[in-house]
Amino acid sequence: MDYIHLSPRLQMVADFVPPCACAADIGTDHGYLPVWLLQNGVIQSAIAADIHAGPLANARQSAAAYDLEEHFRFVQADGLQFSGVQAADVITIAGMGGETICAILAAAPWLQQQGKQLVLQPQSKVPELTDWLWRNGFTIKDAALCRDAGKRYLVLRVLGQPAVQTYTVEQLLLRRRDPLLTEHLKEEIRRQTRARAGMAYAKQTPAAELAALDARLSQLQACLKEVQTWQL
């Protein structure tokens, strides 16, 4: 049997999925991720869900191409709004904007009630997503970076339980000594510095907002200094 090969971005998501009976892939597109998880014995069954009929048809074709149709359930639905999704042990959401992921999770309060495991790979609005997760009863357990087609991507392992202690994404990446952390930090420092300059120029930004941004910049710079000690 031929084995499917994933892009670096999807492979990083797959590597974060723990062995389990069933995984639900939300916004499955071509269904490549659940096919790989099934072929490699990570999961026993998959739910492939997408809001659009076209991507779901593509996922069916992928399952058929690898003779895995009997292990799939295909669902056309908006996010997690369909019956039977709560049977999934792990839920993956990859390739969507952070704001869309927030909306999907906010509409499914049972995620916290059942302490579900999530693997999230946002395409944008990463700080907004991570802040939302901490504020809304989720715990970010781990994070990793990869590069795919010249772009850097982040994956998060999340648990539907309130955090005993919160961490920044950078602290989680520091803990695993992620090889792309230096690059991430320098870009984030540049972004936050530009934002700080814009706020100062406007002269109407509340002092509390400026103080919060200064604290964030200080935290990022301290993290960068620690990373640089790895190379000494």
Please supply descriptive tags for the structure shown above.
single chain; 232 residues; alpha/beta; 7-stranded mixed β-sheet; 9 helices; 7 strands; 24% strand; globular
Structure description:
34% of the residues are buried. A seven-stranded mixed beta sheet has the order 3-2-1-4-5-7-6, sandwiched between helices. With 232 residues, it is an alpha/beta fold.
What's a quick, concise take on this entry?
The chain contains nine helices and seven strands; from the N terminus they run αβαβαββααβαββααα.
Give the low-pLDDT segments.
none
Sheet with most strands: 7 strands, mixed
Tally the helices: 9
Q: Provide the spatial order of strands within the biggest beta sheet.
A: 3-2-1-4-5-7-6
Helices and strands, in N-to-C order? Answer: HEHEHEEHHEHEEHHH
Helix content: 40-55%
* Residue share in β-strands: 15-25%
Nearest-integer average pLDDT: 93
Structural class: alpha/beta
Measured between the Cα atoms of the first and last residue, the distance is: 47 Å
User: Given the C-alpha coordinates, what overall shape results?
Assistant: globular
| Rg (CA only) | 19 Å
Q: Which oligomeric form is depicted?
A: single chain
Total beta strands: 7
Topology overview:
Layout: H1 8-15, E1 20-26, H2 32-39, E2 43-50, H3 53-65, E3 72-76, E4 90-97, H4 98-106, H5 110-113, E5 117-124, H6 126-135, E6 139-148, E7 151-159, H7 169-175, H8 181-202, H9 207-229
Helix pairs in contact: 1-2, 4-6, 8-9
